[in-house]
Amino acid sequence: MRGGRFREDHRAHNAGWLSFQDESTCPQVSCLHHSKINLVKSKRSASGPKKQIQPSAGLEKQLGEVVREIREERDISQDRLAREMDTDRTTISLIERGLRSPYVRTLIQVAAALDVKPSEFFRRLEIRMGDSWRNVRTDGRKRRIGD
After folding, report:
1. Residue 118 and residue 136: Cα distance in Å, rounded?
2. N or C: at which end does the chain have fewer Cβ atoms within 10 angstroms?
3. What is the number of alpha carbons within 13 Å of residue 131 lying toward its C-beta?
4. How would DSSP label each residue in 112-136?
5. If you average pLDDT over residues 54-64, what whole number do you get?
6. Residue 66: exposure state from Cβ atoms within 10 A (0-12, 13-18, ≥19)
7. Number of structural domains, the chain?
8. Do the domain assignments include residue 122?
9. What is the pLDDT of residue 130?
10. Residue 107 exposure: Cα atoms within 13 Å on the Cβ side
11. Helices 104-114 and 78-85 sit at what angle, rounded to 10 degrees?
């Protein structure tokens, strides 16, 4: 009977439902749960700390800063904004850091969740960029022969 209880406990432990007081006291030598933990630990230590990619400038960076500015003015977390939009928090983070250029639909969803007019993003973006917005039209677009 004892063996059956141990197997049940260990299955629950491997699934993350049951934890032993001290991870080192797990009675199973080849514990699936612990092998996963050790694999993750070894990957982390081998690759070192991950570096965040941050663009230094550009339209996406400026737009992201505007989104962050408005979100912080309203005292809304990225997580709460993401839930309001029914999306993932990383999507908001990527937009705010300028790593994702949002579709117009996404920008309107952000505006609705923040309770601002979509034009507010562009008004603030125009103020930030001054006349440099005129130079954006050729950035990132392939030129045709003869242009």
Report:
1. 20
2. N
3. 0
4. HHHTS-HHHHHHHHHHHHGGGGGGG
5. 82
6. buried
7. 2
8. yes
9. 87
10. 16
11. 110
7 DSSP assignment: H
Predicted structure pTM score: 0.58
Q: Which two tokens stand for residue 51?
A: 């570096």
- pLDDT-derived band at 132 (thresholds 50, 70, 90) equals confident
Q: What is the pLDDT of residues 72-128, one digit of tens each?
A: 999 999 999 999 999 999 999 999 999 999 999 999 999 999 999 999 999 999 999
Q: Does residue 53 lie in a domain region?
A: no
Burial class (CB within 10 angstroms; exposed 0-12, middle 13-18, buried 19+) of 7: exposed
**75: domain range?**
59-135
* Kind plus residue range of the DSSP H or E element containing 32: helix 32-47
What is the identity of the amino acid at 67? Answer: V
Q: Do 20 and 79 belong together in one domain?
A: no
**Among the ranges given (5-14, 27-36, 46-55, 118-127), the one the predictor scored with the smallest mean pLDDT:** 27-36
